[in-house]
Structure formats: C-alpha cells, structure tokens
Amino acid sequence: NAGVTQTPKFQVLKTGQSMTLQCAQDMNHNSMYWYRQDPGMGLRLIYYSASEGTTDKGEVPNGYNVSRLNKREFSLRLESAAPSQTSVYFCASSEMDRGHNEQFFGPGTRLTVL
Amino acid sequence: AQTVTQSQPEMSVQEAETVTLSCTYDTSESDYYLFWYKQPPSRQMILVIRQEAYKQQNATENRFSVNFQKAAKSFSLKISDSQLGDAAMYFCAYLLSFRDDKIIFGKGTRLHILP
C-alpha cells in the first residue's frame, strides 16, 4: 500500500517549456487535489476532482490544467511554464466520508522554472 | 469566505516542555472539521489531529491535544513533553462538512525544539 505517489520528485524547466506532474493513489479515494506550497503562503489549492470524470478550479488555477484519468490518477499540466510557477507541488486524496475525511498527501514535487 | 489564520510564524520550545500553537478561523457554518497537519523537513504532510465541530470534547492524540473554542472560532494545538522530532511546520486547516470538498489551510507555524 503505497498511499499517494508523485513523479517526478524534482524538475527544472526553462520558461515556456511544458510538463505534466503525475499523481496516483491506491486507497480507492474519490477525491483528489493539487496544491502548491510557497514560502509564507501555506498550501493553496490549484484544482481538485471530487470524483472520476469531474474537475474544479481551486484558488490558483491560472496556468494549469488537470486530467482525472481514472479513479487512481490525477495529473497536473503546465502548458507554458513561468518563473512564478516555481514551487513545491503536492497531490492529495481523500474519501470525504464523515468518519474519514482527512487528506493524504504525496511526497511533493519541487519545480524550478528558470 | 472561510479563512484560517495562524498568527505565529515561528515558535521555539525547550525539549520536554509544553507549547501551544494558535489558530483562528472565520466561518458562518456550524458543521465543519478542523485539522492540524505537521510537515517535517522531509516535506511529507502528516495528519496530527482532527476535531469535528459538533463534538464539544477536545480531541487528543497521545502528546497532542487541542483546545477547541467554537464560539471564539479558535482551535489551538498543545504539544506536551516536546521532543526533537516535533520540530516541523504545523498547519491548521478547515473543512466545511460535506458541502465542499476543499480544505483551507493556514500559512503555518514553524516550531523549533531547543535541546
């Protein structure tokens, strides 16, 4: 039981390049999330998916797209990376059941855009 | 809109002592959840404790306990017998029950443990 996995762990991009961050969970959770973490800003929600086939914008969606490929996988795509997207990205999942609604997080991806 | 405020960017405590981290939140709802997450230098986010707003009893998990004051919209975390492994960023978080899947995080408090 790996929980939430993310790839890659580190990435350096040049401005304008594109890339996809991958996330998978093996806990059969319905809900999945993408956050970015910047110094002094806490975690800010980029996009989330309440169930397979649905996605919704969070607090900071501009410059990102997501795909909920199936129940297990939720990817985040940067079409044209900008230095302002330098951050640590976390994927999370949860069941959203009254007794089990905490989010489980992946190990994070440190992205640097030059 | 719901907000979560952690007014202490950094705190320090002597090993074996007790420390309290503050958190306040703003909501007009009555049914919600509150969480404390720990983020050690490894970056992994770890759930420390959870409180359901409809429960008056404060949640406890071993050396971690909360002081939940619903009327004051306050949710502080007390760490007893602090250990070196408690050094981390601590995030307070709010979840509106069932009507919204989104958790709102505070900006965090960095806790230093002094040997």
Strand content of chain B: over 45%
Q: How many alpha or pi helices of chain B? A: 0
Describe the largest sheet of chain B: 6 strands, mixed
The proportion of residues in beta strands of chain A is over 45%
- Please work out how many helical segments of chain A DSSP would assign: 0
- Shape type of chain A: globular
Which blocks of ≥5 consecutive residues of chain A have pLDDT under 50? none
According to DSSP, the number of beta strands of chain A is 11
Overall spatial form of chain B: globular
Instruction: Give the helix proportion of chain A (percent range).
Output: under 10%
Which short descriptors sum up this protein?
heterodimer; A: 114 residues; mainly beta; seven-stranded mixed sheet; four-stranded antiparallel sheet; B: 115 residues; six-stranded mixed sheet; globular
Descriptive notes:
The complex is a heterodimer of chains A (114) and B (115). Chain A is 0% helix and 51% strand. With 114 residues, chain A is mostly beta strands. By secondary structure, chain B is an all-beta fold. Chain B is 0% helix and 53% strand. In chain B, the strands form three sheets. In chain B, strands 2, 5, 6, 10, 11 and 12 form a six-stranded mixed β-sheet that branches. In chain B, strands 3-9-8-7 form a four-stranded antiparallel β-sheet, with no helix packed on it. The model of chain B has no long low-confidence stretch (mean pLDDT 93). Chain A binds chain B through residues 31, 33, 40-45, 48, 50, 58, 88, 90, 92, 94, 96, 98, 101-105, 107-108, and chain B through 9, 33, 35, 42-45, 47, 50, 91, 95, 97-98, 101-103, 105-108.
